[in-house]
Amino acid sequence: MSGYNGKILHVDLTSQSITIEQPPDSFYRLYGGGSAMGTYYLLKNMPAGADPLGPDNMLTLFTAPPTGAAVSGQSRVSAIAKSPVTGAIGDAQAGGFWPATFKRTGFDGIVIRGKSETPVYLWIHDGEAELRDASHLWGKITGEVQAAIQDELGDKKIEVMQVGPAGENLVRFASIINMSNRANGRTGMGAVMGSKNLKAIAIKGTLKTEFHDLAALKELARWGAKNFEESDVYTMGLYGTAETVAPQQEDGGLPTRNWTSGVFEGFEPITGETMSETILKDRDTCYACVVRCKRVVEITEGEYKVDPHYGGPEYETLATFGSYCGVNDLAAISKANEFCNKYGMDTISCGATIAWAMDCYEHGLITSQDTGGIELNFGNAAAIVTLTEQIAKREGFGDTLAEGSARAAEKFGSAAQDLVVAVKKHEVPAHMPEVKRSLALIYAANPYGADHQSHEHDPNYTPDWSYTDRMAEIGLLDPQPPDNLNAQKVRYSLYTQWMYSAMNSLCVCQFVFGAAWQLYSAGQFAELVRAATGWDFNLFELMKIGERTLNLQRAFNAREGFTKADDTLPKKLFQPRKGGPSDGVFVPPEQLDNALDMYYEMSGWDPEGRPTRLKLEELGIGWVADAINN
Amino acid sequence: MSGYNGKILHVDLTSQSITIEQPPDSFYRLYGGGSAMGTYYLLKNMPAGADPLGPDNMLTLFTAPPTGAAVSGQSRVSAIAKSPVTGAIGDAQAGGFWPATFKRTGFDGIVIRGKSETPVYLWIHDGEAELRDASHLWGKITGEVQAAIQDELGDKKIEVMQVGPAGENLVRFASIINMSNRANGRTGMGAVMGSKNLKAIAIKGTLKTEFHDLAALKELARWGAKNFEESDVYTMGLYGTAETVAPQQEDGGLPTRNWTSGVFEGFEPITGETMSETILKDRDTCYACVVRCKRVVEITEGEYKVDPHYGGPEYETLATFGSYCGVNDLAAISKANEFCNKYGMDTISCGATIAWAMDCYEHGLITSQDTGGIELNFGNAAAIVTLTEQIAKREGFGDTLAEGSARAAEKFGSAAQDLVVAVKKHEVPAHMPEVKRSLALIYAANPYGADHQSHEHDPNYTPDWSYTDRMAEIGLLDPQPPDNLNAQKVRYSLYTQWMYSAMNSLCVCQFVFGAAWQLYSAGQFAELVRAATGWDFNLFELMKIGERTLNLQRAFNAREGFTKADDTLPKKLFQPRKGGPSDGVFVPPEQLDNALDMYYEMSGWDPEGRPTRLKLEELGIGWVADAINN
Fold first, then answer.
1. Of these four, A224, A295, B287, B350, which has the most CB atoms within 10 Å of its CB?
2. A548 Cα to chain B: minimum distance (Å)
3. Exposed (0-12), middle (13-18) or buried (19+): which is A454, by Cβ within 10 Å?
4. Claim to verify: residue B185 and residue B219 sit in the same structural domain
5. How distant, in Å, are the alpha carbons of A377, A421, A581, B5, B79 from that of A326?
6. Does the reported pTM lie above 0.95?
């Protein structure tokens, strides 16, 4: 008999109690794990309207059945909580070795409730779990905490997931960090963890993770190794996600000076190629992955010395601290990145918030009086470094920016608010709907705010539909030109959003598995799950897990009062970009509005974007309709 | 490069012209073939409101990419036309050798328009097609026509699909017959063919049918042969579909005396076991199928001599001519079956129409004056034989009954109409919604009228969910008790209807492939298509083809003016059965009404059950919304 036997750890920090749940196989088959399972527990147990930073909020960390298999792209962990950034569902994914190791502790998920009176950390090892005092770790940066925990537990191989000082300080966009350089970055999951006085989760796993069909997993791994060099992710291995800088620039798709333009005249120093030729010390990887997309950079001389322990900047980091801010100083950006990993902050929201402040400064809406004397012009590399540290520590002007651009803007009036580039207060990442139009819809509609890894972008380069064959696997037979939001583009967006949502619930990397250019196809993704579990798993179930995930998250938001009015874009994106190939391009509001209506109806949601009871019943989760009083 | 290269024959009988279309691979991948492709051409080319028996109606015959592979259950052909029974889409499936042989002519579908001035037959051989005079065949029975065509074309191996005299005579429920004993039985496709003066389609195919992965097909065949004896269809091979008689009786699910009761006290002589022990001469099969479910019966003595050339009765035939009519004379039923195959008529509608007439006779609503002297009491075996021949020839009372029960009833007043057991004028087959409640919904809602092979019945026996594992492949993780029509039952009905609709478009046998008790699982069904085509085909695409099929057919009906009012059950099913385990049981009208509302909403249809534009767009067939002005 096949199936999946998992264990879920329930931790109540208020009562300091720990219990273990062993759900039936069918629970895993319905939800997968990851984001769907996390949202499940929030809908079941978090009271509606909970303060994201109060004890009623919950934080879940879930892997999925394939996690820990020796195949590229499976070592991922999903963090779910009500977001202190958006007030909606929060969702952030991270890779590394922590997820695969966690599986070897005998668990596949953690559901955390309440708030500890004093700082604690959770220590999980081979089927056991305990809360330990973390008072001595409070205030320490990630690298130090990791070393201290390894020291006190007497094992250098212990994996540590943690919040840095930013999470302790309730920086809204604080992240959860593992290995000191992998982040559940977005939507403020670190602030939630910090608010609970939970400093870290340390794990040691030596149990054997059982998989149904090791031969099939080995074959998948072999196929991946063999086909990697010919695949579209090979260059991502060489240059990191930073490989994207140059093509984005070429297409007018590199957000520059807080989205004033889509071209950054001084982009060359911040490309992946430049990084590889200059400060790159090593390429790092996640458990069992051939891609090695992670950067390790080191700078030993000059104004900004950068410690390789904290990794290196991703594309998004190079953009938000770089082009967003008009900065092309790779050392300064790398230093800001190091701070984000040391202190535990999302590089996208952090960089984008500083960029917004610069835009305000340029417009005279924020002055040096506000900034504590910092001349916050675009291009000021020193300022981004200084402010990043100030934000983490909530010092000076950083205390204001630690609230994120949307909340900070409330202090500076409507003109400043008009310069915010965020959806649901969540700063927009560095892919432009002006040149990849489906992003307009998904940025607006995504349940956890603007996100660039929630669907398959329509290509901003001369359409290369060599991967149309692969997209046919999810029913998309025709190329989707990037310049419209018609019904077929809405369908394309929705179908690929289901796929990406499934990746978040089955916890695979979106560079390694997917329906387009990724190393493995959608069918191979289903095969991974089949081999791991023994289920006759297939793309119908997989896509339904994706749709179920999306509906769970939209239902959560509906319960929190979100409506269509929240599914919109910031004013600035309705105004034209300046210069380059995207000169004059903007998202027409009526085009977005129309697309949203189509998207809701296609999704089986009501005109406010709320899942209907019958859609939830169709997905086998009718209980959600009761949970949200729909 | 993988993919499918097919050819479609277009025959205009009015102009006697023949053209060949070679659609792109993506056309096949979107629609499959069979019912979806047939409905596609009707929506594209048949004017709305066309007379089903006039030249504007079209008749399509489609196989699908897997047809002709040497694997059980793939030799099927789907007939689609506007139905002269329902006025809605007509849909009938048949097996045999014709479909596999047709593929070897180099074609995979025929689209027939117009009307020939004089009788013709279509002769297709190895990539060529011609219309030939059929005046000399007109009026002849199927066996004679087959022999005559084989003689005149000089090849005994020529396969003939044809209408019998019933189709010529426009008996509403005339069938299309191949091999003299396989029928595209339901919804009057033979009447449409007859109305066009198209007597037959004779084929000879010696071309090689290309398949992408012969090794995989061979492996599927090997697996099927190996697992057949342990499978749930093994006894169907032994006893035919007639194996169902005894368990239906046991559960009160054998419609008796025009649905007055669900138990037939004299059922023993008409069981599959009895048939095997008495008149069974041989077991017949379709191309490459291990199941051998087809019956060949022979009776050489007594009142009813039965020619084995015309096969033997299915379960439905034993029920409609048997228990429906209170008749347990196996010889008489077999004779009626022989007539249906000789003359080309649907045994279900024919038997059920006679049963309705008997019910009226018992109630004094029809008298022996009406019947030309036939004493039409329940149990009159001779009457069913006589009337069957009369219907085919439109002689005597048969001329009235040739219109089907619903139209015949119009002659005899409302009390007689209240005894009609039909949906959309389509007689209800022999599975009872009183004991398998999902049938109530699907009988009412199915686009081509009451049909028992349009979804997976909830079991009427003590639920044996040993096959729950298989249903999990299409997302159905929980057993569905047979006694409700709640939201989860509606979902179960809809998902399995998608599966069955996919079977009709990919042209596989519903006994051999499926998501439950069938020989091959749903996943193996997808594998069949993958191996045949080289597409990375999967259950997501497969289920979407099913949903697309259903939506195409509902859209066709919407264009013809069908609304929710047409999706209902006959009065009699809202009244209690009498006797046995189903004593007192009936379908509550408000339960059905509620289920329909849920079913429409889950389907993405409007409150009248019409596909919305956005649902059609979601399925990649937005053009249909324009075609039906929605």
1. B350
2. 11
3. buried
4. no
5. 9, 16, 18, 54, 66
6. yes
DSSP tag of B322:
I
Contact B543 A542 (CB under 8 A): no
Q: Does residue A433 fall inside a structural domain?
A: no
The DSSP secondary-structure symbol of A509 reads: -
Of B26, B494, B540, the CB nearest to A540: B540
Amino acid making up residue A447: P
Q: What is the dihedral of CA A555, A559, A561, A564, to 10 degrees?
A: 20
Enumerate the residues of chain B whose CB falls inside 8 A of the CB of residue A543: 540
For the stretch A2-26, pLDDT in tens is 689 999 999 999 999 999 999 999 9
DSSP, res B566: G
Residue-by-residue DSSP string for B355-374: HHHHHHHHTTSS-HHHHTT-
Cβ neighbours of B104 (radius 10 Å) = 18
Residues A473 and A578 in one domain: yes
Which uninterrupted H or E stretch holds B126?
Answer: none
**A461 confidence band (pLDDT: 50, 70, 90):** very low
Whether residue B189 sits in one domain with residue B116: yes
Task: Show which of B393, B424, B455 is a domain's final residue.
Answer: B424
Token digits of residue A53:
């930073």
- For residue A471, the chain B residues in CB contact (below 8 A) are none
- Residue-by-residue DSSP string for A87-111: SSEEEEEE-SSHHHHHHTTT-SEEE
Q: Cα–Cα distance between A362 and A345 in angstroms, integer?
A: 25
How many inter-chain contacts (A to B, CB under 8 Å) are there?
114
pLDDT of residue B87: 98
CATH code at A50?
A: 3.60.9.10
User: Which residue out of B540, B594, B626 would a mutagenesis test of the A interface target, given it has the greatest number of A Cβ atoms within 10 Å?
Assistant: B540
Q: Could you tell me if A619 and A520 lie in one domain? A: yes
Q: Residue B479: pLDDT band by 50, 70, 90 thresholds? A: confident
Say if the ipTM goes beyond 0.85: yes
Give the CA distances from residue B79 to residues A477, A509, B187, B193, B316, in Å, rounded to whole numbers and listed in that order: 27, 46, 10, 10, 20
Distance from CA of A611 to the nearest CA of B (A): 12
Inter-residue contact A108 to A505 (CB < 8 Å): no
- Cβ-defined contact of A472 to B521 (cutoff 8 Å): no
Strand-pairing partners, residue B611, are B605
CATH of residue B477's domain is 1.10.599.10
Angle formed by the axes of helices B539-559 and B522-533, nearest 10° = 90
Domain final residue, candidates A176, A204, A232: A204
Q: Are B485 and B445 in contact (CB under 8 A)?
A: no
For B224-265, what is each residue's pLDDT tens digit? 999 999 998 999 999 999 999 999 999 999 999 999 999 999
Tell me which amino acid residue A218 is. Answer: K
CA A327 to chain centre: 24
* B326 touches B376 (CB < 8 A): no
Helix (H) or strand (E) holding B154: none
Residues in chain B: 630
Look up the domain containing B268 and give its range. Answer: 215-424
Tokens of A104: 């070897």
* Burial A469-485, CB ≥16 within 10 A → b, else e: ebbbbbbbbeebebeeb
Contacting residues of A for B29, CB less than 8 Å apart: 472, 477
**What span, in angstroms and rounded, lies between the C-alpha atoms of A588 and A596?**
13
- Nearest residue on chain B to A493, judged by CA atoms? B618
B535: contact with A, CB 8 A cutoff: yes
DSSP A592: H
CB contact (8 A) between residue A612 and residue B601: yes
| Rounded CA separation A192/A182 (Å) | 17
- Count how many domains chain B has: 3
Alpha helix segments (H runs only) across A255-329: 272-277, 315-317
Residues A352 and A449 in one domain: no
